[in-house]
């Protein structure tokens, strides 16, 4: 497929970001992604300097369209940790001003047998089942979300499942892949908060392209 550059609104991209994108475009040359998928992958590469994400990112057929629609509808964006929230709040404020909620901040302590992030995620699910869920750090939160998805008929706007690490990370991503929900995930152990925030920011830009 073509690697045609996706043009972004100039008022939402710093000139250094544009320069970085140009370098990435030159080094990538050819790829298999659609233009919107490449816009997301390119932003992840920009945040991580890791070109392997071109092969590791996975998109369900309706993921990008569903995510953009949810953003435009103003649904809350639920992140697992504060770092992801901080990574997207500036661009959210410049575009659609969706509520941004960090699951870990919703509780003071973990429930018995659970992590604090997992506990907060479950509380967020009770309040915002149709939100966009962004998991960049905590595989326990992603596993908990997948469990709720298996028990509910509610479909969230989008699930971004990109936790990083070694314990339960691959298992949590495989559980998400089996779920019939709009989803973007990164295969394997890689991912993390910068990648998660980059995916959301790319979606915000894609949504803004047709609005601003």
Task: Give short descriptive properties of this protein.
212 residues, alpha/beta, Rossmann fold, 6-stranded mixed sheet, 6 strands, 50% helix, 10% strand, disordered N terminus
Summarize the structure.
By secondary structure, the protein is α/β, with parallel strands linked by helices.
CATH architecture: 3-Layer(aba) Sandwich
Mean pLDDT: 92
**Series of secondary-structure elements, N-terminal to C-terminal:** HHHEHEHEHEHEHEH
What is the CA-CA span between the terminal residues?
Answer: 28 Å
Radius of gyration: 16 Å
In CATH's first tier, which class applies? Answer: Alpha Beta
Domains (count): 1
Shape: globular
Unreliable stretches (pLDDT < 50, length at least 5) are: 1-8
Plain-language structure description:
The chain is α/β, with parallel strands linked by helices. The chain has a single domain, classed as Cobalamin biosynthesis CobH/CbiC, precorrin-8X methylmutase (Rossmann fold, 3-Layer(aba) Sandwich), CATH 3.40.50. It contains 9 helices and 6 strands; from the N terminus they run αααβαβαβαβαβαβα. Strands 1-6-5-4-2-3 form a 6-stranded mixed beta sheet, sandwiched between helices. Helix 7 runs parallel beside helix 8. The radius of gyration is 16 Å and the shape is globular. The N terminus is likely disordered.
Question: Which helices and strands appear, and what pairs or packs with what?
Answer:
Layout: H1 15-28, H2 35-48, H3 53-56, E1 57-59, H4 63-73, E2 77-79, H5 82-94, E3 100-102, H6 116-127, E4 132-135, H7 139-151, E5 158-161, H8 169-177, E6 183-186, H9 193-209
Parallel strand pairs: 2-3, 2-4, 4-5, 5-6
Antiparallel strand pairs: 1-6
Helix pairs in contact: 1-2, 2-9, 4-9, 5-9, 6-7, 7-8
């Amino acid at each position: 497929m073509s690697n045609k550059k996706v043009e972004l609104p100039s008022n939402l991209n710093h000139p250094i970001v544009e320069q970085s994108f140009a370098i990435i475009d030159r080094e990538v040359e050819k790829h298999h992604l659609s233009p919107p998928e490449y816009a997301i992958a390119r932003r992840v590469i920009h945040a991580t300097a890791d070109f392997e994400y071109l092969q590791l990112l996975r998109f369900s057929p309706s993921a990008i369209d569903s995510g953009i629609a949810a953003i435009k509808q103003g649904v809350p964006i639920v992140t697992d940790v504060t770092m992801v929230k901080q990574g997207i709040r500036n661009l959210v404020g410049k575009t659609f001003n969706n509520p941004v909620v960090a699951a870990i901040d919703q509780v003071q302590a973990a429930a018995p047998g659970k992590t604090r992030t997992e506990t907060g995620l479950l509380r967020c699910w009770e309040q915002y089942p149709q939100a966009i869920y962004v998991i960049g750090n905590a595989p326990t939160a992603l596993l908990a979300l997948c469990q709720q998805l298996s028990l509910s008929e509610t479909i969230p706007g989008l699930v971004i499942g990109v936790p990083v690490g070694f314990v339960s990370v691959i298992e949590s991503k495989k559980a998400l892949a089996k779920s019939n929900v709009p989803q973007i995930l990164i295969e394997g152990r890689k991912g993390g908060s910068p990648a998660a925030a980059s995916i959301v920011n790319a979606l915000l830009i894609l949504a803004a392209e047709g609005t601003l």
